Amino acid sequence: MRILLVDDEVELVSTLAERLTLRGYEVDWFAAPQEALEAVRNTPYDIAILDVKIPKMGGLEMKKKMERIQPNLRFIFMTGHGSLEDFEAGSSEAGAEFYLVKPVNIEVLMEKIHQATTKEAAPR
Amino acid sequence: MRLKSIFKPDFWDHEDVAAGPFKHLFNFRRIWKQTVFLTLTVTLTPLIFMAAIDYRVSRKAIESDIQLRTARLVSNTRRSVSFFLQERKSALAYVIEDTLLEDIMNPVRLAQILENLKRAFGGFIDLGVIDEQGIQRAYAGPFLLEGIDYSGEDWYRHVLQEGIYVSDVFLGVRQMPHFVIAIHCRCLTGRPYVLRATIDTDKFNHLFAELDLAGHGDAFLVNRSGILQTPSRIFGPVLNPIPLPVPPHSERSEVIDAVDPGKNPLVLGYAYIENTPFILMICKSKGELFQSWKKAQLEILMFLTVSVAAIIVVILWGTTYLVSQIYDADQKRVATLHQVEYSNKMASIGRLAAGVAHEINNPLAVINEKAGLIKDLFLLKENYAADEKLLALVDSILKSVERCGTITRRLLGFARHMGGPPALQTFNIKDVIGEVAGFFEKEASYRSIELRAEVPDDLPAVESDLGKVQQVLVNLLNNAFAAVSEGGHIAIRVRRRDGVLAIDVADDGCGIAEGDLKKIFEPFFTTKRSRGGTGLGLSITYGLVKELGGEIHVESQLGKGTTFTFTLPLVR
């Protein structure tokens, strides 16, 4: 399974990528949205884990662009902002299956990845 | 309006607790005083001034009227008295002209003349003829006075000089007041002689009795030494001296002020009667004369008093009412400003909290990942996997990160609803209570206070402004924490009750005095002024609950605890 990981915090995104790699995933991580978009054009991914707030291009905008390139891509959002209700409210608005609150518990993240990839026919 | 507040309105003891931009704009006590003073001055001054002018003018008018009438009466009466005397003088003059000396010396003829005079004029008592040596040669009358020598008498010398003489009144042998008229006859035909007649003063008394004297008036004659010549109702019988100075001589009738023996003021009119020793006096009691005027003045005074009292009452009531209205409006204005400031403050706190939480969240996430990676590496690399101590350390780091994460998440969730625009949201009251109670957990554990939430699981969702519900809960819990002492209990209970959720915040703290319970939601009411209370917390809470469409009330017993209950309408 190939995962795309985007967050402007390099320390965070690199470490998280390493942890996921340790768990057997193929992970490409980017701190710049443009590079991530470029990667989506060249490589097929199963799932994209995006930070909601990234300078220059937010997670939601990135999602729209990536969906145009790879319509079957699944999304998980991470955010340092807001409380649980917001994610719940926001997820329906953004059309993303899952929101996670930073700091992210790796076990929870793994579970969400599993859920996202197994729900093939999840309604958009 | 309560009786107490009529006499002492709320604004009277108002102390300006707020400073700065929320200060009250007015000094209510000064406004009240100025308004009362000004309105009283402009209403009462003209009224009292008019009344005083009326008093003076009407008094002057009535005084001059009394003077005029008295003077007229004195003149008329003087004319009557003069006429009476003149009549008798003329009668005697006629006798002298008409009768020969021989006839007049004849006692029978003299008695006949006396009889005729008595019949024709009245008042004559006796007649006597005195020769130039002063010896009474003939006499007709009730006494035997023939041969008496009058040559040494003052009156005899007077009559020889002046030709005519009217004596003072004296009491005769019969104790009857009478006086003498004597006329000197210088006839060319015979020897000169003096004709002397004694005249009864009874006629005067009749004359005065016929006068129409208003106000217990009194009319009498005195001589020039102030001795009564006719009886006076005020000053006593004939020949009594009157206790008044003899008024100065005047050709005309005069009116002066005097007092009677009882010190009552009198109006005294007098006139000197020409060629006699008599002074006519007419007295009237001032009190009697002024009675009707006094009555009118009393009526005016009563009317004035009632009007002044009515004006004062209306002005006091009106001013108090108006200033109270201004006070209430200003109180509301200050409270609103405070509420606005409170919301602004909450919004700032919210933004600040969100900023801080977000800033902390990012490094926290990094720590989380780094520690997680260390743990992953330990678990995957076998030489570390057995090192339980290292694993425990990493787990402890991860747990702390998790705790910090909970705090920042809670803070972010809470701050989001503070001070933002009102937004309806559907939420579960249990979550909100748990979140808010979370903020108080630390304080509760420090002070060994048991904070318990009894929320049933089957409650329906609430559609309301989440931020406001949170603020209400925070405010009520703050109050509860301020009220309880160490080891106390605070309970949050939620019940479903016909269409609303009723939320109790109960404590077993110090309680609220019964007298304060009614005022507890009023702005600026506080029992903690010295400890920095503004008296706005509960009033703001009250406003928030009202905005949410609920009710709030309080039950409390001093020393036993307080329960605040507020309701939230359920989704329709």
Explain this structure:
The complex is a heterodimer of chains A (124) and B (572). With 124 residues, chain A is of the alpha/beta class. Helix content of chain A is 47%, strand content 20%. In chain A, strands 2-1-3-4-5 form a five-stranded parallel beta sheet, sandwiched between helices. In chain A, helix 1 (10-22) links the parallel strand 1 (2-6) and strand 2 (26-30). The longest helix of chain A has 13 residues, at 10-22. Chain B is an alpha+beta fold. Among the domains of chain B are: 61-289, PAS domain (Beta-Lactamase); 421-572, Histidine kinase-like ATPase, C-terminal domain (Heat Shock Protein 90, 2-Layer Sandwich), CATH 3.30.565.10. Helices cover 51% and strands 19% of the residues of chain B. Chain B has helices at 3-7, 28-98, 101-105, 107-120, 154-162, 202-209, 286-289, 291-380, 382-385, 388-417, 429-446, 466-483, 514-517, 537-547; strands at 124-131, 136-140, 164-166, 170-171, 177-185, 193-200, 218-222, 254-259, 265-272, 279-285, 424-427, 450-454, 462-465, 489-497, 500-507, 552-557, 561-569. In chain B, strands 1, 2, 3, 4, 5 and 6 form a six-stranded antiparallel beta sheet that branches. In chain B, strands 12-14-15-17-16 form a five-stranded mixed beta sheet. Chain B has a four-stranded antiparallel beta sheet with strand order 7-10-9-8. The longest helix of chain B is centred in the middle third of the chain and has 90 residues, at 291-380. Chain B is rod-shaped and about 190 Å long. The relative contact order of chain B is 0.07. The model of chain B has no long low-confidence stretch (mean pLDDT 84). The chains are: A alpha/beta (124), B alpha+beta (572). At the A-B interface, helix 1 and helix 4 of A face helix 8 and helix 10 of B.
